[in-house]
């Protein structure tokens, strides 16, 4: 394994919004690799507290209708509903991210399960980048819409949002917006008594 190449993959990943994603999207084999990477995220007791639900092909029309109905129910006009529907149709593929948190687990508290979900999302997106694809995790008010949540979730599941996936139509422009590592990596010292 070339460790420098692996590290460069991590250091060069960036989010690509739906309007900058074009065909082709990942193949079934590439999606399987992305999920294998997600499954390598830290996961106390191997609970796998998440599912990735693919929205592609004709299913995109169904998601667009859900988004449009939710927009109208939220008080948006026809133009707003059409814009939300377009957001469902634009990316070559969308992956709904659903959490399955066991609130009564005797060994693994909920916050550790949520951390596993976040790690899985990060690994999934990094694997997509390594395979030459772009993606972005999206959420917003739609994840709290009961009709949309019911369409994606089984009982006990929580809809976190959607990963828009496809081939990036452009490279990122401008400076990175993340802080310097020194602002995040901090030496801890015990408090004086």
Automatic annotation (TrEMBL):
Similarity remark: Belongs to the nitroreductase family.
Keywords, ordered alphabetically: Flavoprotein, FMN, NAD, NADP, Oxidoreductase
Enzymatic class: oxidoreductase
Keyword rRNA-binding: no
Species name: Roseateles saccharophilus
Domain of life: Bacteria
Cofactors that this protein relies on: FMN
Keyword Flavoprotein in annotation: yes
Protein name per UniProt: Putative NAD(P)H nitroreductase
EC number annotated for this UniProt entry: 1.-.-.-
Entry-linked InterPro entries: NAD(P)H_nitroreductase (IPR052530), Nitroreductase (IPR029479), Nitroreductase-like (IPR000415), YdjA-like (IPR026021)
Domain Nitroreductase: 23-166
